[in-house]
Amino acid sequence: MSPNRSVSIIILLASFIVAGSIWTRPAMGTKGVSVGQGDIGLVDIYHIVDIMIMSDEASEQRAQFEAEGSAAITAYEQQLIGIQTQMSGMSQDDPGAAELYNQYQQVSQAIQQTTNQINSQYQALLAQQIADAYETIHGAINEVSASEGLTWVFATRRDADLIQTTTLTGVTQEILARPLVTPPDAGDITELVRLHLGLPTMEEITAQLEAEQAEAEAAAQAAAEAAAAEAEDAAPTQATEITDE
After folding, report:
1. Residue 218: exposure state from Cβ atoms within 10 A (0-12, 13-18, ≥19)
2. According to a count of CB atoms within 10 Å of the terminal CB, is the N or C end of the chain lower?
3. Which residue from 18, 4, 17 is spatially nearest to 53, judged by alpha carbons?
4. Of 68-77, 152-161, 185-194, 213-222, which range is least confident?
5. Residue 49: Cβ-neighbour burial (10 angstroms; 0-12, 13-18, 19+)
6. Rounded Cα–Cα distance for residues 156 and 196 (Å)
7. Which of 36, 41, 37, 11 is nearest to 180 (CA)?
8. Can you tell me the mean pLDDT for 78-99?
9. CA–CA separation, 110 and 112 (whole Å)
10. Nearest Cα to 157, choosing from 6, 3, 8, 15?
């Protein structure tokens, strides 16, 4: 599991789903399933999407993308360092200074363009991961609802704690993610769907993230102490003058 999962990911879905259908008889024109038939369930599909996005597979995919993007930017930055090194040894009157300056400008622009492209592709990757997660979860909900004998399943968040409150769009999306204001506890199949998909709990993911972070911090501290000790051992010692008494 990659530490980049610690970056909080916000799942914004603007509608709810209905599992089940109303059939109309062509001849009689009456409902095949009445509202009173079957049971109603609910699921916090947004919570399960969060878990899937923070899973090992999705996190490692994003980590690999970030590593490749970082490598591309680093290559450009090394070019800039090389150009700066050459320019530092030149005078302003040097004929080659203007050409090096143009190269510096071109590489700087390439860094900006590449950064924008990486950011755009990362957003597309995250969006695709969310879409794939939703499709998988949707299928699992249908399977669980069928086994539980549910006719209707609504997607809603149970709590009233809005995650995004700094923008009007964010608040609106958060409210739309909660179409049911007082969903019944008995009808919640979120945990059944999570178990059906074999996913860990959010608490388990958080605990593992904290353990990984603590391990990384301990390793960094140990490396720093080792480097300091090595530097101290390599430092020249003051010679001791030996005299005959």
Report:
1. exposed
2. C
3. 4
4. 152-161
5. buried
6. 19
7. 41
8. 84
9. 5
10. 15
**Residue 22: what are its φ and ψ, rounded to 5°?**
-115, 120
CA–chain centroid gap for 215, Å, is: 21
What mean pLDDT do residues 2-10 have? 41
**189 close to 148: Cβ distance less than 8 angstroms:** yes
Distances in Å between the Cα of 66 and the Cα atoms of 9, 30, 73, 108, 133 are 16, 56, 11, 20, 20
**What pLDDT digit, counting tens, does each position of 144-169 carry?**
999 999 988 999 887 777 877 888 98
Q: Which residue has the tokens 């916090």?
A: 44
Residue type present at position 221: Q
160: left (phi over 0), alpha (psi -120 to 50) or beta: alpha
Q: Is the confidence at residue 239, as pLDDT, over 80?
A: no
